[in-house]
Specification:
Layout: E1 2-7, E2 13-18, H1 26-38, H2 43-62, H3 67-71, H4 74-83, H5 86-89, H6 112-131, H7 138-143, E3 144-148, E4 165-169, H8 185-194, H9 198-209, H10 214-218, E5 225-226, E6 242-245, E7 262-265, H11 268-282, H12 308-321, H13 330-343, H14 348-355, H15 371-379, H16 384-388
Length: about 400
């Protein structure tokens, strides 16, 4: 079992799952096509889900179970995920000769968050199969338990205060709370200094100061960028310099994760970087006909829109030239933007809108104060004597 990309005659792409005979696995393919086209999911989402479902189907095949029987033993599958490394779980591993190592001193093969992500994909496939009538309804009760909402705050309940019921996943690992993996300000400065072109500096600034994902970055069109003080002449009512993040199908595989279009304010540093990059771009004649903001300027095919993978490559190269111990990943720059905005006093709703989060809860990781702010808050509380008005 392996994940495999599919390109349709329309040019749209999604990922599916093939068996050992390179035949499409119907139950997985139907769900992944529904996710991509019925739910308007991103190609990258189907890629992640396809790899997760392939792991589950691979485990079922190697343990002699059909996928429906595998649903009855999800706890065993979770144990396999935790302790089966690539030597035992990859598509290339031998079906009978792979050894699963477990025991004291052996590091887990996958983190709790990764295991939970795999289970989310498997549950989605099972629920879709049940809804489509290709699997018995009893499988849903094996994955979910019915729970009431008494543990929810009053604001999250029914307007009339009536108790409601909801489904809760039966199998889920506790994920330890960790600080958001952000790039430090010094690291960002080092990467900026190590950039060799105006284009690369603008890319770093848009991720670090505007919070763009690399898919949103590579999908930007020139008409999405409004750098005028007043854009009403362009038919846009958003004030001052900004850009619009719009979800589209792009030939370079770039994809905006959020379905909702959003306007992102740009500060003077980013506007200046745009101006410098425009002069650099004008020196490449092949770039003149492209409507994409970021195009290939230094390697063939010149003028073609940059692919999201190229952003990771330039970040790795710039991190290496900057002498950093570990390369800065594009998403760490986005985390830095969210953290800096929250530290500057912005509310969680502002952070969510700026970063394009569908749920405010996704932005909660950025509003956890650092230890210095906790210390300042404690020191600001008056002593009992001061509160009582006692001078001595």
């Amino acid at each position: 079992m392996r994940a495999f990309p599919v390109r349709l005659p329309s040019g749209q792409r999604y990922w599916t799952v093939l068996d050992d005979d390179l035949q499409v696995v119907a139950v997985a393919d139907e769900f992944l096509r529904y996710l991509r086209f019925g739910r308007d999911g991103a190609e990258s989402t189907t890629k992640a889900y396809a790899h997760a479902i392939a792991l589950f189907l691979r485990w079922c095949a190697r343990t002699g179970r059909g996928w429906q029987a595998g649903v009855e033993h999800v706890a065993l599958f979770m144990t396999w995920l935790a302790h089966a490394g690539s030597d035992a779980s990859s598509a290339e591993a031998a079906g009978t000769g792979a050894v699963v190592l477990a025991g004291p001193g052996v590091a887990p093969a996958r983190s709790p968050s990764r295991i939970n992500g795999v289970l989310t994909a498997v549950r989605g496939m099972v629920v879709h199969a049940v809804a489509a009538g290709s699997a018995p309804a009893g499988l849903v009760s094996l994955l979910y338990e019915v729970a009431d909402d008494r543990d929810l705050p009053a604001a999250a309940r029914d307007e009339e205060g009536r108790m409601a019921w909801r489904l809760r996943a039966r199998h889920r690992l506790r994920e330890p709370e960790t600080a958001v993996d952000r790039a430090g300000d010094g690291e960002i400065v080092g990467v900026l200094r190590a950039c060799r072109s105006a284009r690369d500096r603008l890319i770093v600034l848009l991720m670090a100061r505007a919070g763009l994902r690399r898919g949103e970055l590579c999908g930007l069109r020139r008409g999405d960028v409004h750098l005028l003080a007043d854009s009403r002449a362009l038919g846009c009512g958003v004030e001052r310099s900004h850009l619009h993040v719009v979800r589209r199908d792009n030939p370079n595989g770039a994809w905006a994760k959020s379905r909702r279009q959003r306007a992102v304010p740009l500060d003077f540093l980013v506007v200046q970087a745009f101006d410098t990059y425009e002069f650099e771009r004008m020196r490449v004649p092949q770039a003149a006909v492209s409507d994409f903001v970021f195009v290939n300027l230094f390697r063939a095919p010149l003028g073609a829109p940059m692919r999201p993978d190229a952003v990771g490559e330039l970040m790795a190269a710039a991190s290496r030239r900057a002498g950093l111990d570990a390369p800065i990943r594009p998403h760490q720059l986005r985390h830095a933007c969210g953290s800096n905005v929250a530290d500057a006093g912005a509310g969680i709703d502002v952070v969510a809108d700026l970063l394009g989060h569908a749920a405010v809860s996704s932005s909660r990781v950025y509003v956890h104060p650092d230890p210095s702010r906790l210390r300042a808050a404690v020191d600001a509380v008056p002593s009992p004597r001061e509160q009582a008005g006692v001078s001595r």
